[in-house]
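Re: beginner question about structure tokens

> Can someone show what the tokenized structure looks like for a real chain? I only ever see the sequence side.

Sure, here's an example I had lying around. Input first:
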Amino acid sequence: MDTLRKRLDKTLGSLCCLLLAVMVCIACWQVISRYIIGVPSTTSEELLRFSLVWISMLGMAFVAGKNQHISLTLFVDKVSPEIRRWWMIILQVTFAAFSIWVLIIGGLKISSISMLQISPALGIPMGKIYYALPVAGGLIIVYSLMNIIDLVKAMSTQSDASAAMEKQHD
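And the corresponding structure tokens:
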């Protein structure tokens, strides 16, 4: 499981870094073509916008997999570690449910609806741009399942350690 997580993290991280580097180059080209050459690039703005959609969705999956997403921990920090672990499992199940209903099902619907709409500058079907939603949803589900497995393993290890300590005291 750790090998899969490491490979997925490395792949997603590399892909996001590569996409960001490409976006910086495109933005630089847009500035150069507009202000230095005097002939603005017609495709660069649209390409940047579509790249931003993809990097946002892939970045969301990457951050959710590392459990570094924004969360309100005011109440969770005040409870016992056991309740905190159960809360984290509920949170991961909620992420998976959100990913299924909104990102995958909703993303596939919006992709199929907008497949006939063609982007003006690049000529790409807009449905392909919206495929970022179900792709990110699938990645979040994979990460959520790995996180749940890790939390359950930690709970069973903790209960085994607690049971061993109780036997020593008896």
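Each token stands for a local structural state, so reading them left to right follows the chain. The radius of gyration is 22 Å.
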